[in-house]
Amino acid sequence: MDNKWIIILLLFFSVLSSKVFCQADTSNHHSKWYKFVVQYDGRYSSINYNPTRFFGLLIGYKFKRNQMISLGAYTTVNPFKPFYKESQYYDNQLLSNVYIKENFYLYFCSAAYEYSYFDTKRWEFSVPMEIGFGIGKSYFEKKWEFNQQTNSFSEKQTTDYLPVQIGHEIQYKIYPWLNARVQGGYRYSLFNKLLNDNKDIKYNGFYFSFGLRVYPLRVYRIFIQKKTS
């Protein structure tokens, strides 16, 4: 692994460990801030100059009022096309009825740490950091006619990669149990060397996401527990 990756990972985990473990507080003042979170995350970005959407679900544990750790799972909604189309000529002759199908999907899980530095009755600003592990699957198929013969070629590849990102998030508290959220930031990833060298996938770049954050225990207390009590 490249030295810069080692530095990035060390910085990430040092910040995470210092926030989570070095600021332990068991006082009653903070005990009420231990709460679970379920979050929908729709991310928009560009990979290899193709607009790409991600869909994800996140389960988190918020504590000490301004910190949260979470696990999430994500996948691409629309497959993007990292491959360059091959020439439609062979031996200086034009191929006929050329059919090309090319897709690339991403799946990954991630662990995240989020620190809120501004929190009011209606607004919350935070800095989320994320690191994960994912799999990329590519499929390429080409069919063409040449000299009155039908020819075909197909290829499948799978690679693993390491996504890392940091951003800034703004939340608006619609109800005590529901927040609307937007986030923007930058992501960086290390694809496995074979796929990245052969296909030149340009994964690094800025992203934008939006979604909803729900506090299930508050939903239970407001809508279910009160009715039964």
Q: Can you walk through the features of this model?
A:
The protein is an alpha+beta fold. It is built from four helices and ten strands, in the order H-H-E-E-E-E-E-E-E-E-E-H-E-H. The strands form two sheets. The protein has an eight-stranded antiparallel β-barrel. It has a two-stranded antiparallel ribbon with strand order 4-5. A hairpin with a 3-residue loop joins strand 6 and strand 7 (123-146). It is elongated, with a radius of gyration of 23 Å. Mean pLDDT is 77; it is low at 17-31.
Chain-wise SSE layout:
Blueprint: H1 3-21, H2 28-31, E1 35-47, E2 50-63, E3 67-76, E4 89-90, E5 93-94, E6 96-119, E7 123-146, E8 149-175, E9 178-191, H3 193-199, E10 205-214, H4 216-228
Antiparallel strand pairs: 1-2, 1-10, 2-3, 3-6, 4-5, 6-7, 7-8, 8-9, 9-10
Strand order of the largest sheet: 1-2-3-6-7-8-9-10
Poorly predicted residue ranges: 17-31
* Overall outline: elongated
CATH topology title: Porin
Distance between the termini: 57 Å
What gyration radius follows from the Cα positions, in whole Å? 23 Å
What does this entry show, briefly?
The chain is 19% helix and 61% strand.
Please describe the structure with a list of short key phrases separated by commas or semicolons.
eight-stranded antiparallel beta barrel; 229 residues; Porin; elongated; alpha+beta
